[in-house]
Amino acid sequence: MTTLLLISGSTRAGSTNSAALHTVADLLGEEADCVAYQGLAQLPHFNPDDDHDPLPAEVARLRTLIAEAGAVLFCTPEYAGDLPGSFKNLLDWTVGGSETSGKPSGWINVSSAPTGAAGAHRALRTVLTYTDARVVDEACVDIPVPRSAIDPATGRVSDPAVRDAMAAAARRLLAAV
Fold this sequence. Notes:
By secondary structure, the chain is of the alpha/beta class. It has a single domain (3-175), classed as Rossmann fold (3-Layer(aba) Sandwich), CATH 3.40.50. It is 37% helix and 20% strand. The chain has a five-stranded parallel β-sheet, sandwiched between helices. The chain has a two-stranded antiparallel ribbon with strand order 6-7. Helix 1 (16-28) crosses helix 5 (160-175). It is globular and about 45 Å long. The mean pLDDT is 96.
């Protein structure tokens, strides 16, 4: 079974981005082994002087999860027209390793803002391309998810059409493995 690593670019409790990824994990059920990376806020600030063995523990854990995954699915908000700083920090830690090289990668953009988080996803594509990740265009989708579409009891996306679209994108990513 393929491991699908799910990485949210948000540190916010109740994040729509994280809710979308948890929903994907639920929808894929036994089609993939979905692993959600939960250490974004614990990553140290990137410093090239520290990008060598032994790596900081959380960086080593992140790189191991990426290496062991068959594919990586991201879901990130936009902050001030670009990637949130903590998420960019995560991506910076991937530059010095080779774990993303050739790794099928995609994203679900849940922004319902007028600009659709275009700046963040343009930057994400740039970094993933720089690290030699294999961006699977069919798995890079814009699926607006307003906060009202999150079921407060489950923390999951409740709209059936949105859920279907997210599952389809994740399945296209898995098919690229």
